[in-house]
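Sharing in case it's useful to others searching the archive later.

Someone asked me privately for the predicted structure of ASCH domain-containing protein, so I'm posting the question and my answer publicly. Question first, with the sequence:
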Amino acid sequence: MTGPHALPPYLLAFPGPLRDQLVAAVLRGEKVSTTGLLVEYEIEGEELPPVGERSALIDSAGREVAVLELTEVRVLPLGEVDLQHALDEGEGYSSVAEWRAGHEEFWHGAEMRAALGDPGFTVDDDTMIVAERFRVVERLPVAEV
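And my answer, the predicted structure tokens:
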């Protein structure tokens, strides 16, 4: 969505297989929530997105594939994530422990540590996270690259 009414990009993970998997889950209606680290917003100097904000979901090829609308934004300690949020991430988790293990693997990965500028970054129960819930407002036609 270029031009004066362009929507901000909505990025899940880093470009590659994981992003492709997550975008596909959103488009299938399986993924209706996601989790980020509050420190990411702080490092980027970004405000938290407001409920009602619309964004363009971006795939690994950089294409806008859908318009999303935020329906909930919560900031809470990692240790307080509940089962419903874990299930709504649409990644097949059946428990908070599974969800957390998957997210810790991502957050402790080299790409995330590099993005945060901290090669030893780790999370614990007190790490503040941003739990977002969204809905697909519109699927966009995607031109082949």
